[in-house]
Structures are given as structure tokens and as C-alpha cells.
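Repro:
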Amino acid sequence: MVKVKLCGLKRRCDIAWANEERPDFVGFVFAGKKRYVSDAQAGTLRSLLAADIPAVGVFVNDTIDHIVSLVRAGTIQLVQLHGQEEEAYISTLRSVIDVPLIKAFPVETAADMKKALVSSADYILVDHGAGGTGQTVDWSLLQGIERPWFLAGGLTPETVAEAVKMHPYALDVSSGIETDGVKDRIKMRQFMAQVRLAQQEELL
């Protein structure tokens, strides 16, 4: 069964809605501006989030010390690397924390996909460009992936059915559940409902 990560949550109401919809993960973004949350904000949001929903910290070329501090504080339970972090960085991070690691890759060509597949991260995340663009990956490049992977980029309630057919481990959605740059309760509900419906249809 495909899992769902609702990413870029930053308001108390976002968390309340996530608690209602029961995604498998939520994401806190510690980079950029649009969806950025401070460590303190993330700590508060984590305290409001249902205890059994893991939080993923999203980082872009951040310091290992910063990531480790958030893991040890209990703010995040998984780490997502969305920059140019190399294998040595991943190895060093693994030596100091024992949580699942997700490495994001912009995939526009078969060569991009080949690079992603050899990552030592627990999961790879396939996205369009730098992420957060709302644009879809060329799904023809995603055939036959034989390791756990997250699919991001251009996911909306309307594209869920096709995305599920790609058989990712998880769908990672952010802009597709927003209106005017903030999370939209109705779109979050529609997205989760469409994922469940698509999975039911896959089983028929």
C-alpha cells in the first residue's frame, strides 16, 4: 500500500488537519523561505502532531550538527536531504544518528535516474528540478524501480490515480495541497481520499 507524506506543514491548523487525515508522514522544511520553519516552530508542531505520525525534516546542504540536534530533540524521526549532499555526507550522518534517510534527486534524464538508484540512503525521492515547483517528473523514467522510493512533483488530487500506478513506496505532496501558498484543508482531504480510492481500484 502506497504511503503518503504531507510536506511543508508550518501552522497549527496544518497539524490539526494532518491529525484528522492520518498521513504516514508529515514534513517540516528547514530550508528556503516559503515553507521554512524554525527549530522552535517545528518543536511546537511536533508536540501537536499525533505521536504515531513520524515527522520528516527536510534539509538543503545543512550542517550535520543541526540535523543531529533535531533528531535528538525528538522533533524529527526521519531525515530528508534535498541538496547536493554526497555519499560521504550520508556516511557521516549515519555514524551519529540511527534514523531513516531519504535522499532527493532531481530527475530529468535516464542518467539522473541511474545516479539516484545507487544512493546509499534508505529511500530515494524522485522530484522535478529542485522540488516545490509543482511540475511533474517524466514518469516514463520511473519504470521498474526496485528499491523503496518516494515520488514528488506535480502531485494533486487529480494526478493521484496515475501516480499510484507507478508503485512508489510513498507519495510526497506539498504544493498540490495548497491554495495561495498555504495548506488547504479541503485539498488535503481530497488528496488522501483519492490515494485510498486509487489503491482500492489497484486491488480490484
